[in-house]
Amino acid sequence: QQAIDEGLYSMAEYLGHYQLKGIGGPIALEEAVSTFSNASRFGKNNAATALLGGLYLDGYYFDYHHKIEKNIELAIETLERGSANGCSTCKWVLGDFYLNQNLTDPTTHRKGLNYLQDAAEMGFDKAQAQLARMFMIGDGVEQDFDVAFEMASKAAAQMNADGISAIGTMHYLG
Asked: Under DSSP, is residue 66 helix (H, G, I), strand (E, B) or coil?
């Protein structure tokens, strides 16, 4: 806590996890949210921003007495702020969120695909693997094995299991 009080927001991810899980003290969800939020806003800590956005996007339930309610609007605001600060994880989470909302809405789908492609271009392996799968089977995009293989190879180079599996599947299919 002292490091964060002194403006060292890079430590906030760890303190927030301790508060969230009750490590070294009682579970303190409100304090964890505050820690992640301050690190996100003032320290531009991308890991804390992505964690906070994910907590709001999915909600968090530790037990009956300790939970964070789902808040999509706040999640999107938080993740978009992180995306603007260069957070590839935030872009991937937003891309996945938009792609899974309503694939029949071309605006939502395009927005999701753009976020996913941005994260992949930044080298985020999960985005690369997800794009590989999408292009391999033609899920929301035109099927393109060349793009699928390129994305899978980039993800696999980072030891991403989904990227490695996609390469194996494409080799098997010929």
From this structure: strand
Q: In sequence order, what DSSP letters do the residues of 132-156 get, joined into one string? A: HHHHHHTSSS---HHHHHHHHHHHH
What six digits make up the tokens of 6? 């002194």
Separation of alpha carbons 147 and 134, rounded Å:
10
Per-residue pLDDT at 13 = 81
Q: For the segment 128-172, what is each residue's pLDDT rounded down to a tens digit?
A: 999 999 999 999 899 999 999 999 999 999 999 999 999 999 999
Helices (H) and strands (E) in the chain, counts: 10, 2
Measured distance CA(40)–CA(17) in Å, rounded? 14
Q: Give how far Cα 154 sits from Cα of 97, 119, 120, 158, 169, Å.
A: 22, 12, 9, 7, 15
Average pLDDT (56-73) is 82
| Cα distances (Å, whole numbers) of residue 25 to 22, 29, 47, 68, 119 | 5, 12, 22, 19, 36
pTM more than 0.70: yes
